[in-house]
Structure formats: C-alpha cells, structure tokens
Design brief:
alpha/beta; Alpha-Beta Plaits; ATP-binding; ABC_transporter_ATP-binding
C-alpha cells in the first residue's frame, strides 16, 4: 500500500525526514510513534500527497505521488489531528457535502451518509448542528467523513487526542471494525496503549530517522524486559538506592520519585530488595509496555 526508500523531506537546510525506509502492507494497521519533531507529520503529509518529497522513492497505492497525486487522494481517507468539520452544518450535511467533493451522486451520498452515521453511532444526531456535539461525537464524525469515498487507505493523525477513556475505546472499536473490513490504517499517536491496541506493526522515529521497527510485542521483547518493578521513595532518596539494587535487573533507572528495575521476574526482584533492607513507600510489579520501549529509545527529555 505504501513503500518508501531513502525518503527525505527537507525544509531549507533542515532535514525533517532523513532517509527512511517504510513499507505498509494491505489490511494492516501501521503506526508512527515518536516525540514532537521526530518527522511523523512530515512523513504522513508526503504519504497523503499534500507535501512533495525532497529525495528518495515513494509509492502510494502503487502510484507515484508526484505524478498521480489526484488519483491517490481520491482513494485516501484522512483524519487530521484537529477536527475541521463545518460546525454550522448538520451531521448529515457534513457527510453529504464532503461526498460531493469526490464527484459522488446525490443519491449515493445520501445512502452513504445514513450508513456512516450508523457506523459512528450518530444517527440520532443526524439533523443537529455540529457545534452542539461533544468532542467524542465530533471525532467520530470526522472519522465517518473520511470514509465517505470508501478509501483503500485511511490516515489518522492523533485520532483520540483529548478524548475521555470511554470515547477513546469507542473509537478503537470503530477502527477495529474498519480493519476487519479490509481498510488499511496508518496511525500516528502519542498514546502508547493506543499503539499497542491498534497497530500490527509500527516504527519509532526520532530526529527524522527510524530507530526501531516491529510489532508491539517484538519491540517490547527486543528493548525491554518481561516485567518492571517500580519502587517509590520520597523525593531525593531514590538516588542512594540505585547502587544497592543495580544488580537485580537487566537495567535500573532512577526517576524523581521512584526507581525502575527492569527484570524478568518482578516478584523475585522485590523479595531481594526487601532482603537488602530497602523499604520503599510502595512497590508495583507490572508488565513492560510500549511506553518503556519508547522512553528508552527516545529519552525522557521534553521535546517541543
């Protein structure tokens, strides 16, 4: 569906994307993860055929974006990070008018709008103006609108940012349904749990380059341990503990209020911590997550 080789995006003398290789297979959910400024959005804009590549090879749906941009865009669905709905129009009108942009007949877009409102659970709000909808409803409508042309490839940029947990899970359910129907998804997200839930494969980008690639489980196995032991201490006391427990895991990390011990057996490590006279305020044994991988690969320093 998408193939990139040595893909570069340059703005003046600044390389936002520095020669990445990507392949997205039909029917999968593929993720781009990375901190702000990593190059995710620049890559997505090239795939969406709204920003030309500077160097390298790129094909989308088997076509060249430089030559076949309009044909590619006709088969794409795009969900931007910020909803850009027509707020003074109704839910139904947003879908029908957007469908007309693709040259679809009035009769077709009427039927399609009814189908998509049911899919997005918005049928009972069909004739309400968008301005009156909640954030979660607007997000569902934005996704529904992106499907009006029955796209082969759906691009989602931070699809659940700002939504409450119930709305996020409902959107995940809608996206799982799309994937089961054969729609290929490309997702950017800052939510690691979302990436674990949605993505079959993903890449982690940092500084314009791909620093890791694989399925969520493969990345966790490669860059982390099976479990993580979290030991919480009053601020300032954790640094002295690191030396005491440094041999109890594959890696030990000190944070402002806790020490993380990356280990294959968290309970066994906790027993040994207590055996050495270390008494944290609290302790937690949890499984390693994609967030542990992400922070190890990209660091904990805030990037604006």
């Amino acid at each position: 569906m998408v193939e990139a080789k040595a893909l570069v995006k340059r703005f003046g003398s600044f390389d936002a994307v520095k020669g990445i290789d990507v392949d997205v297979r039909r029917g999968e959910a593929f993720g781009f993860l990375g901190p702000n400024g990593a190059g995710k959005s620049s890559t997505m804009r090239m795939v969406a055929c709204v920003s030309p590549r500077s160097e390298g090879d790129l094909t989308v749906l088997g076509m060249d974006p430089d030559r076949d941009g309009p044909r590619i865009r006709a088969r794409l669905g795009v969900v931007p990070q910020q909803d850009n709905l027509d707020t003074e129009l109704t839910v139904r009108q947003n879908l029908q008018i957007y469908g007309r942009y693709f040259g679809l007949s009035r009769a077709h877009v009427r039927r399609k709008a009814d189908e998509l409102m049911e899919f997005a659970q918005l049928t009972d709000r069909a004739d309400d103006e968008v301005e009156s909808l909640s954030g979660g409803m607007k997000r569902r409508l934005t996704i529904a609108r992106s499907l009006v042309n029955d796209p082969d490839l759906l691009l989602l940029d931070e699809p659940t940012t700002g939504l409450d947990p119930q709305a996020r899970h409902l959107l995940w359910d809608r996206l799982f349904r799309l994937k089961s129907l054969g729609v290929t998804l490309i997702v950017t997200t800052h939510y690691m749990d979302e990436a674990e839930q949605l993505c079959d494969r993903l890449v982690v980008m940092d500084g314009g380059r791909i620093v890791a690639e694989g399925s969520p489980s493969q990345l966790i196995a490669r860059y982390s341990t099976r479990e993580v032991l979290e030991l919480r201490f009053p601020p300032g006391e954790q640094d002295g503990v690191v030396t005491t427990v440094s041999d109890l895991g594959d890696r030990v990390e000190a944070l402002p209020d806790r020490v993380l011990v990356y280990t294959g057996d968290g309970e066994r490590a906790l027993e040994r911590v207590h055996g050495r006279g270390v008494r944290p305020l609290s302790s937690l044994v949890r499984r390693s997550t994609l967030e542990d991988v992400f922070l190890r690969l990209t660091g904990r320093t805030l990037v604006d």
